[in-house]
Design a protein that fits this description.
0% strand, rod-shaped
Length: 71
Amino acid sequence: MSDKHPIEITDEMRQAMDTAQRQGLQKDLRTLAANIRAATEGRYAGAEPEWQAGVEWTLLWIENTASQLTE
């Protein structure tokens, strides 16, 4: 930052940066959930029921966390 041209970061700018970070994290979490879903698709047939339940719980947790970031 130059003394000749100081930049003031306003509350609105901080809020916009926070919103952008939350939206980026939300997108990353949803991508992660989609990748997990794709990687496990078709593997349930020979898997233990607990494994399937664990995957489903994890996907639900990721989706809920992503949703809470923009509430």
